[in-house]
Amino acid sequence: MYKRLFAFFLLLLLVAGGYAFVFGWIIPKTAAFTQPGKWRLVPLRQPRETVHGYFGEPLQADGRREEWTGGTSRRQYRLSIYYAADTTAAAYSIHYFYKSWLVNRDYLVDSGAIR
Questions:
Q1: Residues whose CB falls within 8 Å of the CB of residue 28, separated by 6 or more in sequence, listed in order
Q2: pLDDT at residue 1 above 90?
Q3: So what's the pLDDT on residue 32?
Q4: Taking 90 as the threshold, does the pLDDT of residue 95 lie above it?
Q5: How does pLDDT run across 62-78, given as a tens digit for each residue?
Q6: At residue 13, what are phi and psi to the nearest 5 degrees?
Q7: What percent of the chain has a predicted confidence (pLDDT) above 70?
Q8: pLDDT tens-digit readout, 10-47
Q9: What number of CA atoms fall less than 13 Å from residue 36's CA on the CB side?
Q10: In what order do the strands lie in the sheet with 104-113?
Q11: Residues ≥6 apart with Cβ < 8 Å to 62
C-alpha cells in the first residue's frame, strides 16, 4: 500500500518537475536564440523614420507605441517599440507567445531602454 502511494507521489513529482523544467527554463532559453535576427539590434535613440527603415512598417501603431510580429501563429514573437515625445525610440520589449494544447504562455525574451 505505501509503496504504491510512494510511487504515485514520486511520479507526480517527476511530472511536475518536468513541466517546470520545460516551460520554465527550456522554452524561454530557446526563444531567445530563435527570435528574428533583425530584432537582436534595436535602434534606440533613433528617430521613427530610421526605425521604420530598419524594421519596415509596423502592424499596429498608436501614438507612442508600435508593434511588429514574427514567427508562426503558435509560436509568435512581438516586438514593441516605445517612443519619447520627440519621436525617438526610447524603449523596446520582445515577447514570445507559446501556444499548445497543454499550455499558453507569454515570455519576456528581451527588453531595453535609454537612460
A1: 96, 107, 109
A2: no
A3: 85
A4: yes
A5: 889 999 999 888 899 99
A6: -65, -40
A7: 100
A8: 999 999 898 888 888 888 888 888 899 899 999 999 99
A9: 18
A10: 60-62, 65-71, 75-83, 89-99, 104-113
A11: none
* Count of alpha carbons within 13 angstroms of residue 41, beta-carbon side: 4
Please state the φ and ψ torsions of residue 61, each to the nearest 5 degrees.
-140, 135
The H or E element that residue 5 is part of is: helix 2-21
The C-alpha cell that represents 11 in the structure block: 511520479
Q: Which pLDDT does position 66 carry in this prediction?
A: 95
Residue 24: helix, strand or coil by DSSP?
helix
Please list, in sequence order, all residues whose beta carbon lies within 8 angstroms of the beta carbon of residue 70, skipping any fewer than 6 positions away.
35, 36, 39, 76, 77, 79
β strands within the chain, DSSP E:
60-62, 65-71, 75-83, 89-99, 104-113
First to last CA, the chain: 62
Residue 55 is which amino acid? F
**The Cα angle at residue 115 between residues 96 and 80, in degrees rounded to 5:** 25
